[in-house]
């Protein structure tokens, strides 16, 4: 018999099995197998506090931990990162394909609309950052100059060993395959193929629950431990403290604007919706990876009343094509570096750079530093950045990569809210909202 889950909007209960498989929540108080007090412990120390603890411990222990011990965590991070890279294309195929299929007729239009809104959001954030940077940074950085920094990879703590885990196919192949198969499923009668992809989704969700989510705090701890021990983060943050504060202020404005639109689309309090996305923001802050944060982002979006079919379709897609925070940060730092290195500021070239950056970001892998690596060619070709300037840009960007990533994934929830409003009456799939009172581990 189908489990009945109450709607988060107070609507009549809907069968949980009719939507995408929900990620299992922590032990419910109604569960007779749960030992007394166990549920309370899980809720008090869920994913968010574990991430915060991992960040604090990584910074504190990075000041005193011997390098020999730190290399153990670096080795783990290398293996875990490789496994993530292997799993990311499978996550996209396993979540996006059945989600598109469940949208029914009209899924192709929804796909195009999602991509269009993601590009519009990315470009608007870049233009906003460009306008504010041109207005404020010349005064804020007046008389400042800077030399190039070392490549942060040169001072990283070496792992004891590395394990290569090549993915079955790359991210772009996974996206195109998911689009083709998902739209194809909407054109044929429901059968074994649709059920097979739903079973694949269940497998992927179980892997996320059993491996990815529990190990994320340890991965985050290793990242901050390494950043603290190699010292590069302090050099870059000290050099660009003024720019960092401006970037952070702009990300706050961007998120408030995005969720103002999302709140209008869903008929909900935008500040409450933004608060619900906090676990996703903090997870991205620790991992610096949009792809690694997909499970948490999707579940937070569902708690905001996004139907499972929409969340499982929009979030993995936007993790690759919606990089508004990264575009904002790259644009601001590019202007800052041009100022402190004495390069001329040409408005036309910079506007063209932002428009092209929105396209280039689509090809950026959802891994730490992926956005700046994809943008390096555009920096050189359109803005005339030398190798030293590109190296400085990479060093500055990677040191605070997580803030842009956190803005990216939080904005994905806003895109999902807009697509929820647009999907009403335009697709034939079941868009009932399943109850998600508590995200697994959050």
Automatic annotation (TrEMBL):
It is a multi-pass membrane protein. The keyword Nucleotide-binding does not apply. Keywords: Membrane, Transmembrane, Transmembrane helix, Transport. The chain crosses the membrane at residues 51-73, 79-100, 112-137, 168-188, 200-221, 233-261, 273-294, 314-340, 347-366, 372-400. Residues 13-31 have a biased composition (Low complexity). Its main location: membrane. Residues 1-11 have a biased composition (Polar residues). Residues 1-39 are annotated as: Disordered. It is found in: Membrane. Signal peptide: none annotated. Pfam families: SDF (PF00375). This is Dicarboxylate/amino acid:cation symporter. It comes from Brachybacterium tyrofermentans.
């Amino acid at each position: 018999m189908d489990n009945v889950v109450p709607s988060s909007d107070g609507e009549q209960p809907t069968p949980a099995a009719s939507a995408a498989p929900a990620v299992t929540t922590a032990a419910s108080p109604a569960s007779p197998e749960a030992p007394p007090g166990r549920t309370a412990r899980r809720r008090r120390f869920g994913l968010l506090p574990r991430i915060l603890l991992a960040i604090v411990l990584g910074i504190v222990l990075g000041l005193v931990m011997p390098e020999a011990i730190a290399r153990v965590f670096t080795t783990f991070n290398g293996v875990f990162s490789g496994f993530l890279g292997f799993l990311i294309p499978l996550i996209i195929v396993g979540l996006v394909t059945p989600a598109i299929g469940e949208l029914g007729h009209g899924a192709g239009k929804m796909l195009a609309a999602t991509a269009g809104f993601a590009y519009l959001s990315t470009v608007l954030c870049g233009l906003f950052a460009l306008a504010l940077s041109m207005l404020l940074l010349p005064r804020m950085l007046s008389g400042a100059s800077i030399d190039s920094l070392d490549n942060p990879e040169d001072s990283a703590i070496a792992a004891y060993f590395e394990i290569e885990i090549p993915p079955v196919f790359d991210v772009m192949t996974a996206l195109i395959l998911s689009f083709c198969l998902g739209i194809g499923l909407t054109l044929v009668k429901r059968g074994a193929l649709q059920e097979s992809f739903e079973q694949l989704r269940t497998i992927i969700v179980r892997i996320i629950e059993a491996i990815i989510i529990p190990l994320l705090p340890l991965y985050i701890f290793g990242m901050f431990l390494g950043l603290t021990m190699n010292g590069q983060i302090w050099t870059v943050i000290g050099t660009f403290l003024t720019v960092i504060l401006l970037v952070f202020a702009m990300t706050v404005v961007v998120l408030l604007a995005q969720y103002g639109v999302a709140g209008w689309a869903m008929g909900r309090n935008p500040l409450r919706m933004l608060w619900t996305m906090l676990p996703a923001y903090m997870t991205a802050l620790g991992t610096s990876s949009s792809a690694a944060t997909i499970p948490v982002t999707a579940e937070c979006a569902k708690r905001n009343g996004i139907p499972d079919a929409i969340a499982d379709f929009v979030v993995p897609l936007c993790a690759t094509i919606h990089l508004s925070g990264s575009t904002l940060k790259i644009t601001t730092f590019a202007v800052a570096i041009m100022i402190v290195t004495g390069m001329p500021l040409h408005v036309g070239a910079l506007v063209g750079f932002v428009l092209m950056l929105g396209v280039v970001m689509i090809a950026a892998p959802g891994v730490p530093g992926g956005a700046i690596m994809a943008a390096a060619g555009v920096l050189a070709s359109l803005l005339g950045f030398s190798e030293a300037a590109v190296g400085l840009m990479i060093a500055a960007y990677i040191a605070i990569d997580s803030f842009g990533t956190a803005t990216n994934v939080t904005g994905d929830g806003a895109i999902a809210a807009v697509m929820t409003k647009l999907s009403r009456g335009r697709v034939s799939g079941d868009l009932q909202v399943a109850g998600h009172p508590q995200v697994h581990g959050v």
